[in-house]
Structures are given as C-alpha cells and as structure tokens.
C-alpha cells in the first residue's frame, strides 16, 4: 500500500524533485552537478532574462537605486526574489520556495519538513 500525506513525507529515503537554476553564466549547470552529485534532483536550467530589472520610475533620481555600489546583477537578483520567483513557483504549483545563495549550506542532514510545523511558510 502506498503511503500518502504526512506519512509519506516522514520517510528518510531521498525523493526525486526538481531544482531550477537561473543563470546567465555558461557552464554553471555542469559545476552544480559536479559539486552536488549526491542530490536526488533533476536539474532544470533556465536562462535569466537580461532585462529583468530596471530602476523604478518613481525612483529615477534616487541615489540609493542608482548608486554604483549596487551592480545590475545584484538588483536583478533582488527583483527576482521579490517578484518573479513567487509567480514562477506558484504557476508551477509549488507550495514552498527554498532559496539558497552561493554561500548557503546545511550544517546537518535535512530529514523532511512537515506541513504546518511553523518552520515553512506557504506562498
């Protein structure tokens, strides 16, 4: 008998999933696969559009938005996290987003999250 719901999620066996990678840098997919070959994910590569971020119209003269310390790539990343990412995940039917930076790591194995535990927020 197949387990469903919370009982199915309590298994420590690796589950197949999808990891979406958005990057303009060629070769990043091969690097990720080499570095994280133990992950049980099918990786889907999608090109990040070149014009996903622009200075908001009402902030055109603001030094905060146009300061040289904020590079275009950083602004695009912020815009993706606050806008496109949520719509993308919701459209695909995902109830959660786990976002990792290049310097993110897990200090110990993750053995599954239970819905409603308070540690995960739905979109």
TrEMBL record:
It comes from the Eukaryota. This is Nucleotide-diphospho-sugar transferase domain-containing protein. It comes from Symbiochloris irregularis.
